[in-house]
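Lecture notes, part 5. Sequence design as translation. It can be helpful to think of inverse folding as translation between two languages: the language of shapes and the language of residues. The source text, in structure tokens, appears below.
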């Protein structure tokens, strides 16, 4: 019933004062006490689970209902106005977009019973992606978080439609992308958003306050069959509150490629290809820095470091190794969403929902950097050289030299044997007239010959040697 998850949304209720821990301590206490997960399936079912962190850490299903005829193409949760007393963000309405070209709103307090329905214009095609503005946030701020006021819907025919959340009336219809819109991501301020194209290879920045296009960038193409240039669909876009230098960044993925880009200067902080197709990505913002986690088609879950982009080296680790074999099947990770404190929620093709803590993978990345970061540090990472390893290296050096000398001597013997075999195959007359070769021809000293006679003899012999060789074998190089 829930095997084929298509889209996943999560919300967590943060703890007011989470337990402070050091970097190397085990994170036995999560920075939240409740997690709510909602998924949409290919069968048109909307389902949800709750997880109370204070009780047994096990997801408990809270609702499951068919909401669309056909697959659920997208789901998203709105931001409700924050509680002024606690200043903690609250989840609002849940929107689902279906293959039946219908938008439905749901309410968590009513166990996801449908609270409204909007049918989209037929000429726009199928609604395939959605986002609220301002989006849902897990972070607490000094000022109360504003609630969502608008909703953006991307359609298969390429249109980007801006709805008013209050009455679901259309405020703007933007041109969008040629060939359809594959994903939408709204900036935390709610004033701008990024959209990715399904087949036009474009990433577009939109000014939502003015309702117009602000910037366009292209992704790398690939050569399809027949030499035609094609583009992968931009499968996911996410925003990061802080890049390594304290400014903002965003990340997007297409095919097996991941790019993290600086917002202010447009510089690529991370630009890598992975072994498998990337279905979705998320940022992990922790004390150790900024990281990206990816849900891949081969069942792997890599975690990559986002740095300033000056170094050619990339630090990463496989939190979950890929599945053995050419096809991952039901082990493919389809969705990944980040919570807070290094926690993520994933969904795979088998219908398994998992809450994962990736702080261990992050600690392994940072500890490896500390161990090998300085040239004068030993492998133990504490700055002391390992004397035993140095002695072993010193013993290995003369052994290598002896091996090289033996190999060189063996090669010389082989060359001498080959040259002697070639001489035996020649006629006796040719052996008397041919000069010996040592890279270039050199005269052979004869008995009772003057210097002029030796030189004349050498020149004649050299010419005769070349002519004989060409007659015997045209392909033989002298």
């Amino acid at each position: 019933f829930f095997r084929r998850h298509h889209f996943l949304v999560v919300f967590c209720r943060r703890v007011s004062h989470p337990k402070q821990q050091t970097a190397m301590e085990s994170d036995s206490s999560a920075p939240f006490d409740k997690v709510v997960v909602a998924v949409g399936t290919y069968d048109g079912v909307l389902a949800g689970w709750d997880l109370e962190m204070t009780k047994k850490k096990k997801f408990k299903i809270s609702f499951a209902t068919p909401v669309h005829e056909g697959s659920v193409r997208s789901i998203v949760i709105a931001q409700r106005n924050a509680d002024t007393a606690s200043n903690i963000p609250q989840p609002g309405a849940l929107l689902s977009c279906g293959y039946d070209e219908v938008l439905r709103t749901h309410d968590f307090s009513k166990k996801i019973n449908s609270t409204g329905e909007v049918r989209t214009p037929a000429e726009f095609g199928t609604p395939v992606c959605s986002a609220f503005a301002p989006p849902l946030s897990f972070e607490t701020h000094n000022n109360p978080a504003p609630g969502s006021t608008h909703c953006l819907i991307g359609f298969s025919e390429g249109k980007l439609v801006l709805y008013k959340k209050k009455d679901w009336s259309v405020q703007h219809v933007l041109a969008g992308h040629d060939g359809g819109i594959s994903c939408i991501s709204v900036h935390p301020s709610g004033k701008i958003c990024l959209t990715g194209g399904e087949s036009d290879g474009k990433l577009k920045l939109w000014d939502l306050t003015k309702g117009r296009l602000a910037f366009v960038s292209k992704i790398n193409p690939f050569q399809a069959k027949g030499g035609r240039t094609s583009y992968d669909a931009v499968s996911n876009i996410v925003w990061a509150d802080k890049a390594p230098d304290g400014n903002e960044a965003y990340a997007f993925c297409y095919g097996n490629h991941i790019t993290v880009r600086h917002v202010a200067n447009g510089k690529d902080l991370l630009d890598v290809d992975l072994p498998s197709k990337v279905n979705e990505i998320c940022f992990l913002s922790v004390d150790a820095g900024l990281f990206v986690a990816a849900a891949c088609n081969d069942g792997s879950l890599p975690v990559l470091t986002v740095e300033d982009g000056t170094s050619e080296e990339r630090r990463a680790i496989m939190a979950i190794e890929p599945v053995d074999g050419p096809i991952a099947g039901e082990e493919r990770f389809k969705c990944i969403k980040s919570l807070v404190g290094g926690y993520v929620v994933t969904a795979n093709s088998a219908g398994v929902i998992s809450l994962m803590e990736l702080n261990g993978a992050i600690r392994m990345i940072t500890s490896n950097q500390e161990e090998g970061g300085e040239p004068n540090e030993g492998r133990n990472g504490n700055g002391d050289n390992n004397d035993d390893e140095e002695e072993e290296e010193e013993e290995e050096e003369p052994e290598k030299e002896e091996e090289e000398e033996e190999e060189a001597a063996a090669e010389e013997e082989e060359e001498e044997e080959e040259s002697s075999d070639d001489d035996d195959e020649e006629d006796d007359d040719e052996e008397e007239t041919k000069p010996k070769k040592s890279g270039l021809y050199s005269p052979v000293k004869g008995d009772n010959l003057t210097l002029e006679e030796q030189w004349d003899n050498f020149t004649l012999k050299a010419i005769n040697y070349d002519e004989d060789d060409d007659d015997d074998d045209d392909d033989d190089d002298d």
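The translated text above is only one of many valid answers, since several sequences can fold into similar shapes. The chain is about 15% helix and 40% strand.
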